[in-house]
Predict the structure.
Amino acid sequence: MRDMPDSLARQRPQAEQMMNDIFRRVGDLPPLPAVAAKVLEILKDPDADLTALVSIIEKDQALTAKILRVSNSAYYGLVRRISTVKDAVVTLGFNNMRNQVLALSAYSLMQGPASGYALEAGSLWDHSLCTGLCAEHLADTLGYKSIKDEVFIGGLLHDIGKTILSYYVSARFSNILERVDQLGQTFVEAERAELGFDHAEVGARVALRWNLPESLVSMIGDHHKPDLKSVNAARVCLVHVADAIASMLGVGIGVDALEKRLREEAAQLIGLTDHAVQDAMAYMSDLGDLREYIGTH
Ligand SMILES: [Fe+2]
Ligand SMILES: [Fe+2]
């Protein structure tokens, strides 16, 4: 041990201690999974029944109020007013409702300033929503319609690890920045060198702890480095590409923009074309104020 360079000898136990410390305190985080996990559970059942979904949502008054506000927002362009959760589920459908519940839950986690990432309040949220919508659109246009709802959620949550790290390691951030600036490391490399782990790894571990579905754990954990052989490869690659496009659009990129590198092989796996990228970018700019979508403005 004595012969090892100081930094190496110290780093592993420190990293483990920091990780353990973070996970001991994850319970302090706002409850993403409480309602969201139940909704996911119900919708996994092919005979999912409307009453069960409605009653879970209705138990949370704040969520009910938000759902009604969003359902009546300009995004859906409905003529008739929606006044009950049941009405909202029937009119907008199960999938829309699931996306809303997850998006609103994720929003409550991400709206705070992720100070460690030099992102202003709400900016990580904008980036996440943009990535989710872009992944959904890519799935739609590249022949992955059956998984478009899943990749929307994956895009929405892919950087959840940043929220976690911004709670716990913001003090270490200047060192990470220095590595990016002076050593030319990517953000993920700098996180790993400084902390012994990165935001994708933290996000995946939290998602596991929250009992989120395995495909979601992969989309969160592998979004910077898709494993092309994984059963979830297409999902992960869609999120990876959407993340890069969202960053190209300058939505909530902060200093993290420096790490953006689109992996050629991920683009190939989903059959990405120049036209699809241009189309996705046009779609994103047509959406205008993204926050209108989820009523969080
Ligand atoms: Fe990321
Ligand atoms: Fe991202």
About this structure: The mean pLDDT is 78. Residues 127, 131, 158-159, 243 surround fe (ii) ion (ligand 2) (CB under 6 Å). Residues 112-294 form a domain with the Hypothetical protein af1432 fold (CATH 1.10.3210.10).
